[in-house]
Every structure is written in C-alpha cells, then in structure tokens.
Specification:
Length: about 270
C-alpha cells in the first residue's frame, strides 16, 4: 500500500468513531463553559509553561475533537490551530469552540498535506497521546513539523511509551506478560473499532497502526533537522488503557515527554 492508502483508511475509521466519542465526552465538554478549563494534566502543563506557551502561536497535530487545543488556548496561547485528518472530529472541534466561546482555528487535513501557508507560523507544536502510531512515514512527519515551526520554535510530544504496546491491556491476570513484539516490519491491522472513550468494540473499517520504537522516533526527529531539547519518561498512564498497572510492584514506562527545537534547514 502507498502512504496515502494508509492515511485515508485511517481517516475513514476515525470518522466512524467520532459520534461515539462525542456522546461519551458530553459531560466533560460542558466543562469548557468554565473559564480557563483544561483537560491537560499537571505533567504536560508544567512543561508547556516551561516553554512559555503564554502569548505564543501554537498548533496541535492530530487534535481530534479539539479538547486539548482549547485547553492550550486556555493556558494563555495567543493563537491555537488544530489539524486533524478526520472530517467528523474537526466538525466536533469547531462546535465545541463555538460552545465554549474560545477562539481557535481547526483545519481538516492530512498532516502530511498541511498547506504551505502555515510554514514558519508556529512557536510551539503539540503532539499528544496516541498520535505517532498513525504515521507510516515518521521522517516526513517531522520534516513537516520543522517547516511549520518558526526559527527556535519547539515541538512538544507527550505520548504513550512504546514499551507499553508490548502488553495486552485486556489481560488483567498477567498484566505484565509480553504479548506483542517491540519491533514490527509491517503495520498492525485492526477492525474492532477505535472507541477508547466508552471502551465498546464494534466492527469498523480496517485501520493501520505503525507502533514506532523510541529509536525510530528519535532518529526521525534528528534527521529532520530538529534538535533534541528534553526527554523524560514517566510511570503514569495517559492512554486510558493501562491504569490497572498502577498496582504492580514492577514499574514499566507508561509515558514520556520529548521536546525538540526547530532548525533553519527544512531538509
């Protein structure tokens, strides 16, 4: 399959699940009526403040229904733009922004195809949990990130640790038993749906995940011309899938934050 075949298949699957996620998040979305409300946890909020989000021009890639993008604006960003491949998710994001009366822009686009008018526009780009697994070409992703950033701008990634994907989140009897390989040569294909909010399975359009290793992520970042600025690992879950591991004596990495800075060369 070609790159566009993968991303379009995934777009169809995310369009399918958008209404399910909307219904499951209704109560939380209403919280945006409260001034300054944020769904971002203390860990990433601290890092966003470290990189001086206030007054900055900020973008979120894979913004989904916009809850995190609106939270970035509520943390003091001057402007916020969310990009997502799902038509239905972007529609929900626009509705939420109108409901909350928060000024954010949302753009329906494959990240690889973000228009050149956004080149060099952003001081900070945010990429959140579960985003990187959807990209068949990480090198192209981070070249895109580099062209969107202003000189000296930062990409901040707060993601699920790749080691966690070796475990079966449904196995509560032996939760630390390794089931999946860390290294894969082909994307993993699923069709049981993407409803991580309500945790309901359904037969969906097939979708493809690429489960990159840490070294693949870091190599793609460095080859794009971005310069690594910060990397920290954590034992708390941000996936909504592995909270049951909290009781285990053996601690595995659950999440990480990585920051990298823009270079003048787009590559």
């Amino acid at each position: 399959m070609e790159l566009k075949d993968y991303t379009e298949a995934n777009r169809r699957s995310w369009n399918q699940v958008a209404s399910r996620h909307h219904d499951g998040k209704q109560q939380r979305k209403q919280q945006f009526r409260n001034k300054g409300y944020s769904v971002l946890d203390d860990t990433v909020t601290e890092k966003l403040k470290l990189y001086h989000i206030e007054g900055k021009h900020v973008a979120q890639l894979c913004c989904n229904d916009g809850m995190e993008t609106l939270s970035l604006k509520n943390l003091g960003a001057a402007t916020c733009t969310g990009f997502d491949i799902s038509d239905n998710a972007v529609e929900e994001a626009i509705k939420l922004a109108e409901l909350a009366k928060i000024d954010c822009q949302f753009v329906r686009s494959d990240v690889y195809d973000i228009p050149e008018e956004y080149n060099g526009k952003f001081d900070l780009i945010y990429i959140s949990a579960g985003s990187l697994i959807w990209f068949p070409d990480l090198a192209l992703l981070f070249k895109t990130v580099n062209r969107l950033l202003k000189e000296g701008g930062v990409v901040l990634i707060y993601d699920i640790h790749p080691v966690l994907f070796m475990l079966d989140e449904k196995d509560k009897d032996q939760p630390l038993r390794l089931r999946y390989s860390y290294f894969i040569d082909e994307p993993r294909i699923y069709n049981e749906g993407l409803d991580y909010v309500n945790k309901q399975e359904y037969e969906s359009e097939p979708y493809y995940v690429f489960d990159p290793t840490l070294s693949q992520i870091l190599t793609a970042i460095l080859k794009s011309g971005l310069h690594l600025d910060l990397f920290e690992e954590y034992d708390h879950d941000i996936s909504a899938l592995y909270e049951h591991l909290k009781q285990q004596e053996v601690k595995v990495p659950h999440s990480y934050i990585l920051a990298a800075r823009h270079s003048k060369v787009f590559g």
